[in-house]
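Input (structure):
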C-alpha cells in the first residue's frame, strides 16, 4: 500500500565532522502531490532529493514511508555495458516487471520521447541528450508511486521536455507523488501543490500564492457534463483555472503541455464529458493610452 513519505527532523552531513548540508528538515509527501524544490546552487537540493529517493540515509532524524520510488539523478552514468533497450529492460525487471513487459514498456516510452531509433545503441555511444532521455525513461517505465526528478529536463530537446511535463501530469493525476528540481523558474509554473526553498540548511515553504496566469502557452477547453456532475477530481489539480459558465458547463484554462492529459481524463470518465470547444488562449493585449 502506498503511504506518505515523511522526513522528520532530518539532517545530513558528509563525514563525522563535516558541515551540515541539511538539518532540522520536516517534509511530508502525500500521494498525488507535485512538489517543487528551489534554492541557490550548493544549498543541498540534490542532497534532499537523494534522501527522498533513499539513495542516502539521514545523519540524524527519520525518513518513514516506503512508496515505490524512481529517481532521475542530476548526473546520469552513461558508460554502462548495455544498449539503451537492454539497460531499460534490466531496470524494468529490477522494478518487478516481467522481461517481456519491461521490454514493451521501454520501447513505448522510448518512442514517446523520440528515442526509439537508438534503442539498440550501446549506452556509451549515446549523446548527452539521448542519455538523458534514457535516464528519464528508466524512471517512468515501472509506474512508481514516488518520482524524484533532479534537473531531469536539462539536456532534453523541446519535444522531450514537453513530453516529460505531460508524463508528470499523467503520473500525478494517477496518484504518483512527484518531487522535482529545475533551474527554469517557469517549469510547470502554477502546477505544484507546494514549493519549498532550501536555505541555511533548512527548508522553507513558499507562502505566496501561485500566479493566476502562469507562463507558457495555454489552451481553453469548454466541456459539458451532466447538470449535477462534478469535474473528475484529477482535472482541477491539473488545469490553471476553472470557470463554471452554466450548471454542468465549465471553461478550463489548461497548460498546453497538459491538454492531452486533461482531455483523455474527461473523455474516459464515467459518465464521460462532452468537449464543446478547444482553442488557443489569446495573449493579453497591452493597454494603449487614449488619444488626446
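Output (sequence):
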Amino acid at each position: 500500500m502506498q503511504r506518505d513519505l515523511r522526513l522528520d527532523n532530518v539532517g545530513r552531513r558528509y563525514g563525522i565532522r563535516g558541515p551540515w548540508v541539511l538539518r532540522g528538515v520536516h517534509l511530508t509527501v502525500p500521494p498525488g502531490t507535485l512538489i517543487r524544490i528551489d534554492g541557490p546552487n550548493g544549498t543541498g537540493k540534490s542532497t534532499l532529493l537523494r534522501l527522498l529517493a533513499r539513495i542516502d540515509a539521514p545523519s540524524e532524524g527519520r525518513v518513514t514511508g516506503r512508496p515505490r520510488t524512481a529517481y532521475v539523478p542530476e548526473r546520469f552514468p552513461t558508460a554502462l555495458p548495455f544498449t539503451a533497450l537492454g539497460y531499460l529492460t534490466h531496470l524494468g525487471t529490477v522494478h518487478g516487471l516481467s522481461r517481456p513487459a519491461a521490454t514493451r514498456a521501454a520501447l513505448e516510452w522510448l518512442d514517446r520521447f523520440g528515442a526509439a531509433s537508438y534503442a539498440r545503441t550501446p549506452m556509451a555511444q549515446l549523446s548527452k541528450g539521448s542519455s538523458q532521455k534514457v535516464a528519464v525513461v528508466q524512471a517512468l517505465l515501472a509506474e512508481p508511486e514516488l518520482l524524484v526528478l533532479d534537473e531531469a529536463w536539462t539536456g532534453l530537446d523541446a519535444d522531450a521536455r514537453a513530453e516529460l511535463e505531460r508524463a508528470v501530469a499523467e503520473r500525478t493525476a494517477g496518484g504518483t507523488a512527484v518531487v522535482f528540481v529545475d533551474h527554469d523558474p517557469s517549469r510547470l509554473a502554477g502546477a505544484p501543490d507546494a514549493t519549498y526553498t532550501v536555505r541555511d540548511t533548512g527548508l522553507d515553504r513558499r507562502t505566496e500564492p501561485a500566479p493566476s496566469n502562469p507562463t507558457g502557452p495555454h489552451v481553453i477547453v469548454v466541456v459539458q457534463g451532466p447538470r449535477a456532475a462534478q469535474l473528475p477530481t484529477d482535472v482541477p489539480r491539473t488545469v490553471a483555472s476553472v470557470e463554471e459558465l452554466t450548471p454542468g458547463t465549465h471553461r478550463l484554462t489548461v497548460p498546453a503541455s497538459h491538454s492531452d492529459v486533461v482531455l483523455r481524463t474527461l473523455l474516459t470518465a464515467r459518465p464521460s464529458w462532452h468537449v464543446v470547444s478547444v482553442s488557443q488562449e489569446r495573449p493579453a493585449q497591452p493597454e494603449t493610452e487614449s488619444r488626446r
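Notes: Helices lie at 45-52, 84-94, 99-112, 128-140, 158-173, 234-238, 259-268. DSSP finds seven helices and 13 strands in the chain.
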